[in-house]
Amino acid sequence: MSVVLVLGLALSSCGGDDAGAESGGADVEPSAEETSPEGGASDPEQSSGDGSEAEEPESSPTPVPASSDGPAQNWPEPEVPDEIYEETEAGALAALTYWFEAITYLQLTGEFEPVSAVSAPDCAMCDNTIAQFYDLYEVESGWYAAEGTTTQDELASGITGDGHARILFALVEGGYTAYGPEGESLGVVESRTYDAEAFLYFDGSQWWVSELEIADAVVE
What we know:
With 220 residues, the chain is of the alpha+beta class. The chain has 3 helices and 7 strands, in the order H-H-H-E-E-E-E-E-E-E.
């Protein structure tokens, strides 16, 4: 298998003409929630004693997708699934799914802590991907807008005696655009699908992504 780095790092190796955009990722737009009420909250009124009056919980700000006008705002951090703390095939699959959700969050916000929390210390591809996204935000003062990246047809090979798992899957990477500090497009990448393989291990506490191998894009 001809192996290249995942999520945009691979695209130049695949012979694409996409100028400027050095890395890509996922963007699954969340459901918009109600905006916070205007002004500060007043002191709760004294209850009449019948329990009919209750203080309403504060709503979260509405997520705003990235565009040429600016990066994503109020984007929710993905929730860590409980399964990643279980030494099961379901736990390994959950960790892989969460890794891509965390990559999405990194791409849209520049925040790398969630994906680092499931990336093995010796995962060079993980480090390279994190650095690419982080650099656009922190060094170039740019940002990304993307359609979304998902995994499909996941097949785990089982767990070895020392807690390792191998997962074959299809990586469906949506199109994305990288923007410069003034909102100028640095390059557009079209959506593509890859045959992919992931290696994870369980350290007694949780699953870690230790390696990802992405083949050349599938020709449909």
